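Structure catalogue
Derive tokens from sequence
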Amino acid sequence: MPILIKTPEEIEKMRLACRLGAEVLDYIAPCVKIGVSTRELDRLCLDYMQNVQGTVSACLNYAPPGHTPYPAAICTSVNHQICHGIPNDRPLKGGDIMNLDVTVITKDGFHGDTSRMFLLGAPSIQAKRLCAITFECMWLGIRAVRPGGRLGDIGAVIQKHAEKNGFSVVREFCGHGVGRSFHEEPQVLHYGKAGAGPELKPGMIFTIEPMINAGKAAIRQMPDGWSVTTRDRSLSAQWEHTVLVTETGVEVLTLSAGCPPAPDGMGA
């Protein structure tokens, strides 16, 4: 499938979709606290999407070939879960780290996809460092986006930073194009070689969402068919923004008032 170049009209609709996706995270952030269950967070997010925004959750009942429908409105991946963690009744506890991933669909049919890490109580030094380095990885990847660059530039800088800091990059899951469809071309690998891959052109929109493990990169698919964990039970972290390649560089579409600011010197 070709990499879609969005029209100016489509870009405006994606700006709205991405803003709404980020607003869900802004809304739910104060609710992420010790003692709350991820199922309750899911309930609150779905209610906000449906009854405040008028959006639809892209995750709820999402069923690619070979998968049973995903049963929740958000993904909540806690501690050693890498991605696609299904909300449940277990209360979050002090020291947990969690990725909360949300994708909304607007009335126009455009998708806004973003995720953030949340740290509860006083996580370990390693957990804090993993979340911080993963955040830096995402922003280094964003900073590598420019017209005339190559897709491999993004993965190369992420891999270098993660491995330099003693962490590993998950290979089986990656960023992706996004627009009218939840997942479009290109696949945005978080590892690779600079200068490789398709040329980046103005109008491309895709996610950058590195999944970084404190231990080895190997994964384990859980029996529920969705949740993915680290094989060695080490911690995992992920941050995600959706970006637009512009004529002069990059625009981060999922920024919002509640987003943590880019690390010093890493702003797009």
About this structure: The mean pLDDT is 97. The first strand starts at residue 56 and ends at 57.
